[in-house]
Structures are given as C-alpha cells and as structure tokens.
Recover the amino acids of this structure.
C-alpha cells in the first residue's frame, strides 16, 4: 500500500490559490455569499453524544472524522480551504440537540451538518435544517425518514437503514438457524418498528419474544429473563453498544447463552468489550477475559471492520488514527466517522473551488461514490438512503473476524436480497481529495 506520506504529497497538489479579487485580498463572490465558506475555511458542524447514555458507543465517531479533517488540513485543505469542524455535545437528548443545532447554525454559521447522530435527536432538528436550506449530510441513524427527498430535500442518509439491515439478518437466521426460536431486543424508538418491518419478512412463527428498552434506563434484567423464559435460542439485539454489553453481561450472569446477533450500529466489538470490562468490575465476572463474552457474536456491517487489518482502507485509516488520535481506541465507530469525512471531502474536491450549497447537493447526486464502503452508496434526486446492504461477520475472541456471508443489498420494502457487482477501489486507486490544476 502507498505510504501515508506519499498520499499526503498527493494531497498537497490539491492546494489552490484562492479565488480572490484583483488585489488578491478580497474574498471571492462564493465565499462572500455562502454561509460557512470563506476563501480559506469551510465550517462543518455536527451534534454528537459526547456525554450521556449513548456516549460509550459513539463518542469516537467525531474523533474519527476530526482525524481525517486534521490530515486534510495539514496537507493544504480542500482547494486551499481548511475544514473547521465544530462538534456540539447533545448528550443524546433531543432538547439539547435543538440547542446544539441552534449554536451551530447561528453562532458558528455552519455551511453543512455532517453525521448528526441519533434517531430521536436528529428528528428534533431535521425540519429546521431543511427549512433553512442547510445541507444535512450523512445522518448517523438508520431511520427511514432521512430518505424522503420530497419532504426533506437537504437531508441524506448514510448507514444502511434499519429495515434493510434487519431483512438481511432475518434471511440469514432463517437459513442458518432454521429450527431455532428467535427473540428480539430493541430500542423503543424508530429502531423497533423499522427493524421489525425487515426481520419479520423472513421470521414470523420463529419469533417467541419481543423485548424493548429505554436508552435512558440502564436496566435489562427483566428483558433478559423474559427472553430466557421464552426459550429464545437466537437473540437479535437491535441495540446501541452500551445495551448490547449490558445484555450479554446480564445473560451470562444467569447462565443464559443464546446466539447473539448485533447490527452495524451496535456491534462495535472494541467498544463493547471495553464496556463489558467496565461493567464486570467488582462482580464475579471480573476475572473472565472480557473478549470471551463476545466470542461467536454475529454482526452485520456495511463498512470494513477495524479488526480487518488487511483491508486497505483500514490500513490507511489506521495510519491517520495513529498520527492524529493518540490515546483513543481504533474502533468501528472511529472508522464510521472517518468514512463520513472521506465522503464529504471527495464531494467537496469534485466541486472545485467555486463552492456553494446548491452545487454541493448537485455534485453529491451526480455520480456513484466509491471508496471505503462494502456496498453501493445511494444519493440521487429520488433516493437519499445511503448505503444499501450489509455483510454478516462472526467475531472470534482469539482471531480475526470471519465473513459468514458476503455483502448483499436490498430495499426497505419487499424486494429480494441480492448479490451485486462492485469493484471496490483501494485508497491508492481513489483520487481521494482530488488533483486540481489552475
């Protein structure tokens, strides 16, 4: 693979003289008329749960994105403009999300929102972002409402939506665990009904228990007891990482050992293992290696996993992480944020130096964007869904993860689950930030 310093040299070629007035000191017309854009800066904002119940699983999303932006900035920025990445903590609380977004739009005057995280949180601000014409890119949630171009023309999904992902999980379970009872454990917001709409296309009589949890209430004893009482041999945990860790620990404490299945947004093994180690302190599980609790866990994923060390994009991101993210783990959620930043940088470089919100969306919808993702990414005038499918991977406590099913794609309704052809480029094959000449 091409060394990071070589890629950095390529990036430096992309530095352009900013489009100034005749005296070289005035801002360009674009910079003067587009909020969040100057001749040397692009202001990008996001709301993230840096504290609160979702923080243990998702606080690394923004550190991943920032590392990529730091790398870009150190090598000249995008067409000579540095990315000013503004992160507001909303504690996974919709009321705080409203205040965080107001600060981003009014005080920081962002050009675009990138990867605002959470279903209930982002629901609280999507109307305002669209009313103000602020590009709302790559929402960090699998809810279906981000893919409504007629109602929300400025909003675009990113991760595979809950229904598509659950369909592929359901089909895999139906084929590989045909005679076993299935239990569902899910977050009591849009995650639940959207996931059920997918998984119940393939599993009906097999489902013996439906158990929900409130992300603000860190207690799962009753739900786990019910799953065991109903003899659920396979449990699909449509959960954020903190609650997957709690569920696995609670089940182990009563000797309940189902086959666990986790989604892309909850099955970050690095993060969940770290949480299990914390939860095990001063309990009988304290002396058990925490990674053993996740041995055999099935995870669905649309991006390469941090543990897939031979993947060229993971190698590339690991180099960036080691340089800019000292003292933080390199987890799947880190990669998630890095991919969001990469995709945004690709779009910005493709636009050229004349940047405004209209040509941002036109460019995003103009072609297929290939790179880190394992499945096609959709952004067109009538499809804002983002990534379109997942692979199935089994975690191994003493070795690399094993791909159990290659990536497949589907829709959010009753369509088939299908293989596809896509030549996924490596970093050195992608003009990641562009090479522009004057």
């Amino acid at each position: 693979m091409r060394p990071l310093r070589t890629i950095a040299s390529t990036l430096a070629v992309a530095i352009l003289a900013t489009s100034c007035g005749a005296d070289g000191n005035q801002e360009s017309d674009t910079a003067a008329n587009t909020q969040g854009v100057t001749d040397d800066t692009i202001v990008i904002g996001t709301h993230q749960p840096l504290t609160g119940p979702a923080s243990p699983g998702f606080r690394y999303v923004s550190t991943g994105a920032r590392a990529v932006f730091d790398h870009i900035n150190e090598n000249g920025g995008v067409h000579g403009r540095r990315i000013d990445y503004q992160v507001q903590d909303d504690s996974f609380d919709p009321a705080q999300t409203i205040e965080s977004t107001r600060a981003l739009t009014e005080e920081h005057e962002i050009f675009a929102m990138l990867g605002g995280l959470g279903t209930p949180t982002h629901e609280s601000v999507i109307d305002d972002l669209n009313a103000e014409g602020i590009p709302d890119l790559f929402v960090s949630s699998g809810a279906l409402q981000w893919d409504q171009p007629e109602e929300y023309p400025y909003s675009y999904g990113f991760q595979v939506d809950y229904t598509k992902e659950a369909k592929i999980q359901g089909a895999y379970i139906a084929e590989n665990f045909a005679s076993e009872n299935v239990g569902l454990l899910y977050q009591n917001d849009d995650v639940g009904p959207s996931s059920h709409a997918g998984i119940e296309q393939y599993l009906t009589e097999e489902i013996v228990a439906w158990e929900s949890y409130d992300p603000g209430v860190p207690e799962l004893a009753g739900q786990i007891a019910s799953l065991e009482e109903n003899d659920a041999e396979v449990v699909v945990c449509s959960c954020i990482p903190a609650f997957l860790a709690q569920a696995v620990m609670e089940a182990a404490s009563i000797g309940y050992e189902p086959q666990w299945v986790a989604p892309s947004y909850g099955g970050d093994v690095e993060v969940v293992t770290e949480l299990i180690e914390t939860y095990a302190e001063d309990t009988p599980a304290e002396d058990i290696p925490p990674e053993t609790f996740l041995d055999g866990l099935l995870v669905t994923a649309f991006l390469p996993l941090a543990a897939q060390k031979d993947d060229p994009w993971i190698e590339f991101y690991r180099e960036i992480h080691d340089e800019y993210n000292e003292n933080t783990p390199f987890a799947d959620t880190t990669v998630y944020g890095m991919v969001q930043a990469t995709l945004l940088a690709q779009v910005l470089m493709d636009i050229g130096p004349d940047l405004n919100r209209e040509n941002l969306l036109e460019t995003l919808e103009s072609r297929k964007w290939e790179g880190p993702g394992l499945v096609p990414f959709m952004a067109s005038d009538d499809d804002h869904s983002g990534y379109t499918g997942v692979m199935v991977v089994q975690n191994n406590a003493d070795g690399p993860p094993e791909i159990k099913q290659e990536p497949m794609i589907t829709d959010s309704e009753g369509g088939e689950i299908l293989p596809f052809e896509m030549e996924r480029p490596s970093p050195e094959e992608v003009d990641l930030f562009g090479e522009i000449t004057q």
Summary: The radius of gyration is 22 Å. The longest helix spans residues 55-74.
